[in-house]
Amino acid sequence: MNISGVLVRARPDRHAEVLAALRGISGTTIHQSEATTGSIVVTLEDGEGYSVEDSLLQLHLVDGIADASLVYQYSDDSLSKEALA
User: Fold this and answer.
1) Euclidean distance between the first and the last CA atom of the chain, given in angstroms as a whole number
2) Which residue stretches of the chain have pLDDT < 50?
């Protein structure tokens, strides 16, 4: 299991477009968003057929994102989603 927290800074004039693009990236959950500053807090999580690394690479390719900073990372190979349910 891998989970990463990312602070995304989008151009405020592209905020809605960036949110839509982020929703299309597998494993991405949007937790908070502020349109006036362009700040978006997301988590990335491994899933069936994709990894946090894949999602992070896709995130960096989204047009309108000025910066994306990894602020938290957790990894535990002994835990699975099924074990946590």
Assistant:
1) 13
2) none
